[in-house]
Amino acid sequence: MRAVLFDKPRSAARVLRALAITACVPYLALKIAWASGSRIGIPDGSTLLEHHTTIIDGSIESALLDSMVVVLALLLTQPWGRRAPVWLLILPAWAATGLLSPIMVGYPLQLGARLLGGTAAPSGGPAARPFLHEWVFTIVYTGFIVQALALGALFVLYARARWGHLWRGRISGLAGQGPARGVQRATALMASAVVLVPLTAHLLWATGSTSGLTATKIAERTSDFYALEAAYVLFAVMTVTGLLLVAFPRAGALPLRLPLSLAFVGSAALACWGGWMMLTALENRDPSRRISELMNVTYSMQLLAGMLVFTMGAYFFAERAAQRGHGEESVASSDSELHTVLTHERDHEAVLPGLPG
Asked: Are residues 2 and 125 in the same domain?
């Protein structure tokens, strides 16, 4: 008996796609303007004006990164997207999750801290000088949050249709499963130990410690800084919790998708922002913006932990597919079902919940 495919899911996905793409426009417009020499949103005396080449290079790089949101939104909702290799979809989706999640969590925390009396303007250091007009942050971060929500929902729809059989069930179904179970547990413990390094550092910084911070960073601490450090603590805890729940399935009643989601989002946030902070530190020519050894170790461990978890996830799903007897036949079946949904939008009967064409 075939399930009925209603117009509502397809319409919702179309709206999500439009939201994700539209939300990129303000950020891309600003970056293109800055790369072209415009000073829109940049106040007089801003430190950005002292590094003209840096702002052009950075604008081009970040515009290319945000353009990937448009590509992903199309890939997740077009018929040709079902033919994309797994790695070509999962890796960019994981990276987008990692770059957008801290903003989606951190920016509301920063606004909440300001409402409670926190300060956004540093009392000292280079950042005490004007940087960008406040309306730029409001428009850009709001756009990022909309991108994160819309793209995340689209990815869930796509992944559920193509690979949903791999995360169905409860944690209890993992107990004693698979010949490599011991290796998975050892690797999970090792990855958790690596996560403890950034977890400890961010927890210290979130609670007011100055250990390992540069003099410039100490002078620039505001409520925004503490809110963002608290967000990093949250993502580190999510990563460890997800890893340990999968490796040691004691809470058997929990759905499997919960720890998998925690590990996916948490590891992506740690890795992508750790890598981004290291990259910007390398590219920055301002001596006052150099990071300390502890900060460098922290960001390096974030990147390492995230890559470990990503690799573990790839092996986990490959083994789970093999154990469930899904191999090539299952992939072909799920792709065929997804193809039915993507190419027959006007048909009101299909096997799976729909995605837009």
From this structure: yes
